[in-house]
Predict the 3D structure of the following.
Amino acid sequence: MATGRAAAGPWSSTTVIAWGVWNAGAAAYHAVILTFVFSVYLTSAVGRDLPGPISADAWLGYAMSVAGLVVAVLAPVTGQRADVAGRRKRATLVWTALTVASMAALCTIRQDWHWLALGLVLLGLGSVFAELASVSYNAMLCQIATPATMGRVSGFGWSMGFVGGIVLLPVVYVGLIAGDGGLVGAPTADGFNIRLVALVAAVWFAVLAVPLFVTVPEMPPAADAGDRPGVSTSYRQLGRDLRELYSVNRPALWFLGASALYRDGLAAIATFTAVLAVKVYGVDAAHVLLYGVAANVVAAAGALAGGVLEDRVGSKTVIVGSLLGLLLSGVVLLFVSGPAMFWILGLMAAVFLGPTHSSSRTFLARLAPAGRIGQLFGLYATTGRAATFLGPLLFGLFIALSGEQRAGIVGILLLLLAGLLALLPVPASPPGGSRQPVARSHP
C-alpha cells in the first residue's frame, strides 16, 4: 500500500478533525433515531394500539435482529472490496448517503399502527447502512494516524460521536419535544414534532459528513487489485483469508470472538438503559433524555482520556480496565435503588463505555495485516452482529426466571465477564512483538 508523508499531529491535522466530525454526525442516527427518540416513538406511540399478541417492542427486536443478520453477511465482503479497489472513502460516502435517506424517510411515519411496519423497515435499513458505513470509516484510521498516535486519534474520533449526542439531543429536546412541541411550537398531533426530529437528524448527519469527503484522501488500489472481485469470489476469498488468519494471526481472530461478547454487552447497555431507568429505578420518563446527554458527556471525556492512556499503556490494558469498571458499576447497581443511585452508577459506567469501544477499534487496527484492515473491520462488524441475540436473550431470560426486571442486569454482566475472560489470553502486542505497519496517504 502506498505511503505518503508523515501524518500531522493529531490535534492539528484537518484530516483527523474531519474524520472525527463524521462520527459526531453519525450520532444523529445512533443517539437520536435508534436509542432515545425515534425507536421510542415507534414502540410507544405508533405501535401503541397494535392488534395481535406480538407487541411493538418485540417487533422492534425482530427488525433489529434481521438488520444484524444482513450486516453480518455483507460487512466483511464490502470491507474487502473497498480495500482492493481503493474505495474506502467512496464506500463510506455511499453508505452514509443511504443512512441519511432512510432517516429522512422516517418523517413520513404517522402515529398510527398501520405505519409501524414501514417505520421498522426504515429503521432496520438505517441500521444496516450505518453499520456498513462504519466499516470503511473505521478502516480510515490507518490513513490518518501513525502507530504512535493511533490510540489518541481513535479516542478523539469516538469522543466526537458522544459530542454529537451531547449537542443534538438537547437541541431536538428543547426545540421540538419539551412541553408542547418545544420552543418552535411544532404541532404534536400525529407525532409531527417527532417526525421533524428525524428530518433534523438527517440534515445534521449530511452536513457533518461533508468535511470527511472533502478532506480525507482516498487510498490507492492494492498493487495486485486487478478487476474488483464479484460477490461469490469475495466470499471464497473471505474463507481463504479466515483460514490464513487462523494460521498466521490467530490473536486477531481470537480478539474478534472476545470482542463480540463484550460488545454485545455494551450494545445491551445502550438498548435497555432507558427501560431500566424508568421501570426499575424510578427515573422520570421526561428526564431520561437528560440522562442521555449527561452520559454522553462523561463517555466523551472517558474516550479522550482512554485514548491518551492507551498510547502509554497499550490497548489491551485500557480495554481490560474499562470492562472491570463496567462490571463493578453493574454489580453495585444490582443492589441499590432510586433515581439518584442510578444517575451516579450509570454515569460511572458511562465513563468506561468510550474507552472500551475506542481501544477495541485501535487494538484491532494494530493486529490487522497490512492491506487487509478494511476486511478485518468488516469481520469486526460481523462478529459484533453475530452475537447480538445474546444480550436481549440473557436480559429477558433472567427477568423470566426471577420475575424481577432488575435481574436482567445479570445477563448483561455475564456477557461482559465472558468477553473479558476470552480477551485475557490475547497477546497485548501483535505477532512478532511489533505493531503492524500503518499506511499513510496525505495530500
Notes: Residues 14-147+158-248 form a domain with the Growth Hormone; Chain: A; fold (CATH 1.20.1250.20). The first helix runs from residue 14 to 36. The radius of gyration is 21 Å. Residues 1-12, 431-443 have pLDDT under 50 and may be disordered.
